[in-house]
Amino acid sequence: MRGGGLLQLRQSITRRISQGDKKAVARRCFATEAELKKTVLYDFHVSNGGKMVPFSGWSMPIQYKDSIMDSTLNCRENGGLFDVSHMCGLSLKGKDCIQFLEKLVIADVAGLAPGTGTLTVFTNEKGGAIDDSVITKVKDDHIYLVVNAGCRDKDLAHIAGHMDAFKAKGGDVSWHIHDERSLLALQGPLSAPVLQHLTKDDLSKIYFGEFQMLDINGAHCFITRTGYTGEDGFEISVPSEHAVDLTKAILEKSEGKIRLTGLGARDSLRLEAGLCLYGNDMEQHTTPIEAGLTWAIGKRRRAEGGFLGDEVILKQLKEGPPVRRVGFLSSGPPPRSHSEIQDDKGKGIGEITSGGFSPCLKKNIAMGYVKSGSHKAGTNAKIVVRGKSYDGVVTKMPFVPTKYYKPS
């Protein structure tokens, strides 16, 4: 979930800047520096050596003074702090907000306990993914969710259109877009002990996927124990006027072990964790079944349907999908998006959607879609990179074991 082609963007920008082609960089990212939106942490990023790049209409740090590889490793060993304020948080409220949302997503929202959440997918009439999102049932009449920055406009238009129709039939639902708040992602093994210094609430009682509203460093925050790295950690929605102070406090309490971390390492970390990147690994023609997100469809929803595209999705659930998202290890240069996947006889069977060199494993890793039947772990394949074929093998994901904080 959560983004666009970060590694490809980094490589493109680095190459073009090295060639002195700054105008091409602006064209590639579809915005000039003056047109880009800035988070409240923009000046803090720049003063701390952040290399700012255009991303989904925002100026965002792709890395800081350390390398992307070092930053990735430090997040796994200690911790990383990410500014993800470009993402869109919103609340749905009203006695019918759950009934409304369940028309748009595959999750069993009604079945969630208050204060718990799940990953879900917004679907279209053909069963394709409009976006993925982490949603939380705060209370029976309040849902909090976060959607991807690059999908904000289409997501909000999609939700608004269906909300108007729902309300016209007497449904009680309204929304608030949290543009007054910023979003920080604190990830890694030191996340909880460092954050605990800044709140009186016992963080050990908040498990993976759970949500609370509590005071952190004197600010009223929404906190979800989740993230996009495979590590333990938190996403913290903080009033924007307190975002810089909270960032400084986290870094100070970690005594330099938790570092500001940019989009480059965020992409490496999520790829190692086997997590989808919307726009690369999941698009509007991809169903949740094909994307390997069958687990996100609630048991009740499998029986009842009731969401957009349910006929297509439930049919695939019963009969199997035509293609499946799988992981790969490979030799040669790292595979990139759109690299062809072939069987051992050279016949095309699919395409890579994300790939790169794993800083933690010191190996090439990738994910992509192959025809059903070629998806089993251990299946040998060929991956074509710059016109040459290299050995690859289908591999179970995550590539790096996850460390989510769950009850023992």
Automatic annotation (TrEMBL):
Record has Iron as a keyword: no
Compositionally biased tracts (Basic and acidic residues): 337-348
GO molecular function terms noted in the UniProt entry: aminomethyltransferase activity; transaminase activity
InterPro entries, sorted: GcvT, GcvT/YgfZ/DmdA, GcvT/YgfZ_C, GcvT_C, GCVT_N, TrmE/GcvT-like
Domain Aminomethyltransferase C-terminal, first and last residues per copy: 324-400
Binding site for substrate: E235
UniProt-annotated stretches for the region Disordered: 325-349
Function: The glycine cleavage system catalyzes the degradation of glycine.
Protein name according to UniProt: Aminomethyltransferase
Source species: Tetracentron sinense (Spur-leaf)
